Amino acid sequence: MKRVGVIGAGSWGTALALLLARKGHEVVLWARRPVHASKLDRSRENASYLPGFPLPPEMVITSDLADVAEAELLLVVVPSHGLREVAGALAPHLSGGGPKAVVSAAKGIENGTLRTMTDVLQEELPPEAGARVAVLSGPSFAREVAADLPTAVTVAAQDHRVAAWVQEVMATGSFRVYTSTDVVGVQLGGALKNVMAVAAGISDGLGFGTNTRAALVTRGLAEMARLGVRLGANPLTFAGLAGLGDLVLTCTGDLSRNRQVGLRLGRGEALQAILDDMNMVAEGVKTSRAARDLAARHGVEMPITEQVCRVLHEGFDPREAVRELMLRPPRAEAEFV
Ligand SMILES: NC(=O)C1=CN([C@@H]2O[C@H](COP(=O)(O)OP(=O)(O)OC[C@H]3O[C@@H](n4cnc5c(N)ncnc54)[C@H](OP(=O)(O)O)[C@@H]3O)[C@@H](O)[C@H]2O)C=CC1
Ligand SMILES: O=C(CO)COP(=O)(O)O
User: Fold this and answer.
1) What's residue 336's pLDDT?
2) Domain 3-181 belongs to what topology?
3) How far is the CA of 195 from the centre of ligand 2 (A)?
4) Active site residue 286
């Protein structure tokens, strides 16, 4: 039994906290708003983000980061735009030995700095904790994990021993954990698939067919891998759970918030109205900009990302975006880099 701190009480943080508590670990779940923490504590259910799944009485709920300071495993599960601030607030509590692993379960790229989530953790945390940073990614809707449905994910860390330790602590009979040392590839897979899920949603919302969606998934994967390889990732990672696995899940699964944003855009709703109506995060909206900037910085072509950005942030007509994608100059399929 390990002491585990889960930082972030949205749907994913709550589902992971449940998974680990059911495995018998001592779990402390941190919510950023004291009022949310006391509501969770009183009702023993996360009605706002993960309704229908009772939180066991032994799970400690807090809004004080000092309460996770003693954890051996720390999971950071806040949206990517809030991760730096939370990591900065956590840092002073991690003096001494610190946790054996700090795992980012967020899927995004920081806008502006274009840093990955493990970069941000390494920049903000004390060096001993920064050296034990890992990332968890892969096809894993929170509701399905909370419902204990069979799920497989990847945990990547530079030091294989860190990933193997996290694997041992987190794996259950219904939550299979693979390890990797491709920290860049696993993170880019998780972040970029959200942009493609918006694209697939737009296509379905416009009433296009399954041919179109399959084309978007496949060419989306090609551009994800193209950027990943340029940044040093292993191309095989994109054929794995954190690449193709999560891409297929979120481009086809209606539980995906990113796909839902795309569907509604395709049906003609305005982005702001969609976002105002959602209490959950759709990371692809912000990541589309970061991905476009990262691609431009490294001279990598990402035509689908480019068009998603124009539709999301410049009010470009989605039908016109698809037309432009179809009429790009002809090329060979396997021109990889
Ligand atoms: N949900 C899922 O199925 C999966 C999600 N993820 C990833 O996990 C991360 C967290 O998402 P998820 O749990 O779904 O979130 P939700 O959309 O379910 O909930 C949002 C959570 O983020 C918190 N939050 C909002 N803004 C900030 C901020 N600026 N700083 C800190 N916390 C903030 C909210 O707190 P408050 O209530 O106080 O506003 C709330 O806890 C994302 O990167 C997502 O891509 C990964 C795999 C699966
Ligand atoms: O990352 C996810 C599942 O792996 C969740 O996807 P959404 O954020 O689109 O809901």
Assistant:
1) 57
2) Rossmann fold (3.40.50)
3) 11
4) no
Amino acid at 12: W
> 278 Cβ partners below 8 Å, 6+ apart?
257, 260, 261
The pocket around ligand 2, CB under 6 angstroms, is made up of 107, 139-141, 194, 197, 246, 249-250, 256-258, 283
Residue 95: predicted pLDDT:
76
Against a cut of 0.95, is the pTM above it? yes
Whether the CB-CB separation of 159 and 179 falls below 8 Å is answered with no
Query: By the 8 A CB rule, do 239 and 249 touch?
Result: no
Q: Are 105 and 16 in contact (CB under 8 A)?
A: yes
Nearest ligand, CA 10: 1
Could you read off the pLDDT of 45-58 as tens digits, one per residue?
999 999 999 999 99
Residue closest by Cα to atom 41 of ligand 1: 10
**pLDDT at residue number 113:** 98
Domain 184-326 falls under CATH 3.40.50.300: no
Q: Which atom number of ligand 2 is nearest to the Cα of residue 140?
A: 4
Domain segments of the chain as ranges = 3-181, 184-326
Instruction: State the complex-level ipTM.
Output: 0.99
Whether 193 and 218 have beta carbons less than 8 Å apart is answered as no
The pLDDT, as a whole number, for residue 98 is 84
**Residues in the chain with pLDDT values less than 50:** 337
Ligand 1 atom with least separation from CA of 194: 45
